[in-house]
Amino acid sequence: MNLQQMMMQAQKMQRELKKANDALATEEFAITKGGAVMVKMLGNKRVLEVNIDKDALSEDNKEMLEELIMMAINELIEEISQKETEMQERITGRAGPLF
Question: pTM of whole model > 0.85?
């Protein structure tokens, strides 16, 4: 394979990655923790919604709810990051950056 073919292949992979990343950015991910907290996030890691069950709202549950929200957000970020890695591996054949 000559240099020009390699450059064309790299540009094609970059276009495919951009298209896949754009699609992932708008994909919705959601998780429920303890039946009390639901967090919905886009693939670009923007939080869309946090829903707390009204039965869980009490002064006694404040710390538990904060921890459930934190856990939900962290798990969604991990899920999205894993999907990004799988997408990149599928397109490029490797996990790291192209260049």
Answer: no
